Structures are given as C-alpha cells and as structure tokens.
Amino acid sequence: MNFLDNIWLIPLFPLFGAAMMLLFGKKLDPQPPSEVAVAPGVEAVHDDHHGHSHGGHSPAHGHSHDDHGHGHGHGSPLKALIKLICPGMVLLSFIFSAGAVFELAGKEARVHQVVKFTWLAGLPFHMADGRIATFGADWGFLLDPLSSVMILVITGIGFLIHVYSTGYMAHDNGYYRFFGYLNLFVFFMLMLVLANNYVLLFVGWEGVGLCSYLLIGFYFHKKSAGDAGKKAFIVNRIGDAGFILGMLFLFSLTGTARFLDVNHALAEMPAETVEFGILSTTALLLFIGATGKSAQFPLYVWLPDAMEGPTPVSALIHAATMVTAGVYMVARSNVLFTLTPHTLQIVAVVGAFTAILAASIGLVQNDIKRVLAYSTVSQLGYMVLALGVGAYWVAVFHLFTHAFFKALLFLGSGSVIHAMSGEQDMRRMGALRNKIPITHMTMFIGSLAIAGIPGLAGFFSKDEILWLTYSSPLGSKALYAVGLTTAGMTAFYMWRLMNMTFYGKSRVAPDVAAKIHESPASMTIPLQILALGSVLAGWLSVPKIWTDKLQLFEHWLAPVFSSEAAHAAVEEAGHVAHHDTSTEWLLMGISVAIAIIGIYIARVFYNDKPEIPESLEAKLPVLHRTLLNKWYLDEIYDFLFVNGLSKGGGNLLGAFDRNVVDGAVNGAGWITRFSSSVSIWWDTWVIDGAVRLSSFLVKVASYPVRILHTGQVQSYALFIVVGAIVFFGYYMVGQ
Amino acid sequence: MAPVTTVHYLVLSAALLLIGTVGVLTRRNIVIILMSIELILNAVNINLIAFSQHLKNMDGQIFAIFVITDAVAEAAVGLGILIALFRNKETVLADEIDLLKW
Questions:
Q1: Does ipTM exceed 0.90?
Q2: Which end of chain A has fewer surrounding CB within 10 Å, N or C?
C-alpha cells in the first residue's frame, strides 16, 4: 500500500470519528433523562474544588465505589462502540502515519507533497517589489521530517490518551461529546502539521483553538470552566492577529503561501543583520502568533486556566500537542527566522523569560495540575529559547521528549486525582506511594525525566538546549544562566509535587482515604507505555561528546533546517565560537548537579523537614505571596486590559459616541432645521415678495386705465369719435 | 336757382353726420341713439351716392344698398338687444347700463 500518496487520509480518520460522534453520538450514548436533569447541579456541587466530575461518585446515583474502575456496564451498551470508534480512528491514523514516515525515510529527498485540489482560487495582487503574483491556497499536504515527527507524536500520544480517556471519563456525562471534540481536535491538529501552505496551516491553527475552547469548557455548567475557555479563546485571538498579519506580509514578500515555495523565495533574500526591516517584522508577527498558541509571555496566561478542562485534555492539548503548534510553526518558518537575527534575539529572550517566570510560579502552587501547567509553560519557554538561538532541531527534539513525559505526568496526575475522588490540592495528599504503585512508578520516571537526570528523555533535549544556548552564536551566557536556573527550579517543583503527593505523611481526608484505589488498566497501560517512551525517546539523539553515532533525530531533521542561510550563519559563527568538549562536559555536569540539588532540596523541604518551607514563607511573605499569585500578572492584565483598555476604552468610546457621534448627528439635524428656517424666511419674504410686488405693480399700473373703462357705451363712442377726429386732424395737418 | 352740385350733397352729408354723432354722444335713450346711428349711416349713404354720381361709377350705389341692408339688420339686432335689456333692467337709458365696467 502506498501510504505516502495517501497522507491526506490521515486527518480524515479522526474527522470521520468526530462526525460520527457529533452527529449520531446522542443516539449511541443515550443518557438517562434523570441524570441529564440532575447532572449539572450535582456536578456543580461536586466540582467546586475538584477538577473533574464523576457521576458515579455522587451518592445520588447509588453506585458503590467498586464500580469505579469498570463502569462500562452501567452506561449504554453502545458506549462500547464509542470506545471502539474514537481511539480506533486515531490508531488508524497512527498506522497510516507510521507507514508514510517509513516510506518517506526510504526516499532520496525526504520531502513529499500531495496537492489534492486548489482550495482558494487565486486573485492577482501586487507584491512588495511590484511584481504581480497570484494568491492561492491548495488543499495540499506536505510530509517532511518535521511534519512526520509531529504526526507521529499527535497520533501516537493521541491514541494513548484516547485509550486513557475511555477509563477516565467513564462516569462522565457527555461521553460522546468529549470523544467527538477530542477526535475533531486530532483532525485539526493533523491538518495543522500536514498542511503544505500557511493558509491551510491557519485553518488547523484556528480549528485546534476551537477544540481547545470546547474542551476547556467541557464542564460548561461550571462558571470557571466557561470563563477559562473564553479566556483561552480571546488571548489566542491576540496572537492570531499577529499571525494573520505576518502571513499577509509573507505573501506580499514572496507571492506564495506554500512552505517550499516560500523557502525557495526567501533563499534569495539577504539576511537582515543590521537593520530591523520588513523580514524581521514579518518574523516577529509570526512569532506573536506563536506566543499565543504556545503560551509564551505575555500571552501565556490562558494556559494555567485551561486546566479547568478534563485531565486527558490537559495532557493532549495543553501539554503534548496543541501548545507546541507555535514552536512547530516557527520551526516551519526557520528559513525566514534565520534571516532575521534581531527577531531571533527577541524570541530567545521571550523564551528564557517565560521559562523562568513560569517555573518561579510553579514553585509554590498547591494544585497538582497547576504545577504541571506552569511546568508546561516553562518547558515551552525552553523550546522557544532553543528556537531563538537558532537550534531548531533541538526545539523539535524537546517538543518530542516533552510530549512523552509531560503527557505522562498529566495522565499520572489525572490518575492521582481519580484515586483521590477528585481532590487536586496537594496539601491534602501525601504517602500515596504504596496505594497507587503503578501511578507512582510511572510518575517517578516522568519526574526524573523532566528534572534532567541522565539517561532519561528530558536530559538529552534539555541539556542540548542549554549547551546550544551557551555555545550558539545567537545565544549568550546570560540566557544560559537563566536556562540553568530554570532547570534547577524545574527539578525542585517537580519533586516538591512528588514528595507532597506520594511521600511523607498522609494528609488525606479520612473519608477520601478509604476509597483510594489504583486506576483501571485502560488508564495504567497508557501510563506505562508513556513511561517507557520517557526513558527511550531521548536516546534518539545523544550528545555528540558521548558518541557521534546516535544522532538519529538530528540527522532526520537536518534536511528541514539546513538551508543555505543557516549554513552561512553556522560557518560564519564556526570559527568565532569554538568550544572544546571539556566545556561541554563541564556544563553537562553543572546541569545534572543542579537538577540533583533541586531534587534534594525538595526532598528536604517537603519530606524530611516540612517546617523549613513554612518558616521560609513566614520570612519572605511578600515573595511567597507574589509567587502564589502568579506575579499578579492576571491582576495587572485585568487592570490594564480588561478594566483599563476594554472597560475604560469602552467608557471612553461610549462618551465619544454620546458626545461626538451623537453630537454630530444632532448638529446635522440642527443645521438642517436652521437652514430650513432661513429657507422659509427667504421664501416668504423674497420669493413671495417678488411675486406680490409684481402683482402690486400691475395693479398700480391698471388704475389710470380703469378710469377710462366706465362701462358707459356713450363714453366709448366719444373715444371713438375723438380718436377719429385726432386721426383726421393728423391727416389734415400732415397734408 | 342754382343747380344742386356734389358739394351740396357733401354738405348735407356732413350735416347729417354731425347731427347723428352728437345724437349718439349726448342722448340717454338708447332708442334715440339707434336712430342717431341710422342718421350717421344715411349720411354715409348720401356721401357714397354723391360720389358715385360725380364719378360716374355705379360701385357707390351698390355699396349704399349694402349699407341700407346692413343698417336694417343692425337696427333689428339692436332693438332685439334693447328689448331683452329692458326686460331685465327695466330701463332704456344708456347711462344706467354700465355692466361692462371693470
């Protein structure tokens, strides 16, 4: 079978699943009427401090707790069909993806483009340099090493998370709705990464934004969930505005939307090394789009709130795939970014700042999912930092490894929450290690991986980022220091999470403690597979100082990122910044050491001597409160934008409307009335006056004539006679 | 006795014309006015015939007959109007009839 020419089928499978669910799902999974009626109220009570709801836990439904793991029976028997279709469709996509990637690897050029049809027919327009180009967009698909990595992550991890969800969401209402949205998300995400042009990419981009909104607000009867959905949507719109502008600039510069053609056109343009010109502006606008989707400062604020959605959604959309779309997009536009070192500098600084800012907030959060959310923002900051220093392949590598261990950690936290009957506050956990051993074991691996312990996935990618930040001509020691500090913080907050959750003394409420149980196999098996991935994924590209044979990932991506410009930049920098291997060993040692120190401090603080963090909180109340309140950034945004710009601006515009616009209307009315008054006066006195004057004159002139007109026949006869005499007289005299 | 010459006729004609004109202008009774008009017409007739005889041309005579005919018709119509007027206004005095005034 020729998978390569059929890559257009890959997104269609989940679309089919989504269509099935959203069109016919209600028939497949009929909910008992009473449950539908009761559910919102019950869940609202239930969800006040819980992230997700379990109808089965509610006493109103009378399920004993043992039902929990295998609750398939008490849904409709057709629920099994949903379980078959939705993960099955993603599995089918995964198989097709794997087949296509395998065939791609066998090809010489490792690029395969399939154009199905022209989707937007072209209109001619003037490009920036005056040439006339035709704008158009294909319904076309591009499989190259970059998109192949993405589709494998999306379909592979997506499949595991689908399987996990069948267990996790077993007790929720709207089972079909959840899976419909999830499949729709996978479709749009695949469209995003398989598109061969910016316009189609944007379709996927907006589509995943929509699905994100729908799934964050999945528990829509909860106000906070609805608000979080709206926040995510609106904040993303700001980034999208930048993306659209950037796209239009790019059309105007290159006259095409296809990636390959754009790159081809850009290859002939000179790099903007001195001034901040049009290319830099374009790149910056595209990057603004990326900051929205990939949750970078200043637009990251939606991602922590997005944790209102169900945990599998957090894992799939808000950790593994969608939030990496921005990173993917920048990596996809690497030719453009390579031409614009100024913009890359901004990208690097934004990435580093986001990484350390989010990590610092993550240090003190108590909600298990919030810690992971800030961790995600921080790790995305790492990826963006890597993009900023021109190390595109490392950014994608970190994206790849991060997808494994962050999905694992999120799903693990979901399993913990599941075990704790919906409890998310880590202050009410502890000593869960032996009660949920599989969850503990897998999360243990995930935490080691993200902390950067050698041998696990996170180490390889993070260490490569730190090393390239230090050594790349675009990087600097300051950025490296920020990255290193963040690495220490990462290790600390992850192991703070582990210690508060699994070790130490139990702080679990007694009624919850009795019900703690390991999750069903549908949840633990994906966890174990992801744990395996978290160990092995990194070995696809080991540091060159270990061995120069195992750089599979780097070599695989090389064709995408080795443009002429990049080569030139590397060659130019090559002799400037040459670092010997001993430096690299040293830095590697430092980063491992700082990770271990972070883990150790967390162990001391939250296991051995829990009084230390408390006394620290007491000593530094301002710092602690600031971190706990996320640097008050939400409040600042509220003040500046929501209240200041939106409401204040609204009031201002309202005043403008009332006074200026309405004033203009009223003024126009007044002027019309005034001019009509003038017109009336003119009519009455001038026009009518002229008419009356002429009639008056005629009347006056008629008076002498009227005197002659007596009506007496004889006077007329007299006139005749007199007239005759006069004529005669004249005649006589004339003679 | 001196023969009657054309001049004599003309003097008679002028006298009749003068009498008729003065009659039309000064008398109030419309019947008299109509009679004065007849006098004027006859003055004209005499004039026509005098010149016809003087010039040995018959045209004047013929024209005089036309004028007589015309005078008859005019008198008939005039008296008709007068009777109609009298029925309405009960007067035949010209100065009391001023309906055509402005």
A1: no
A2: C
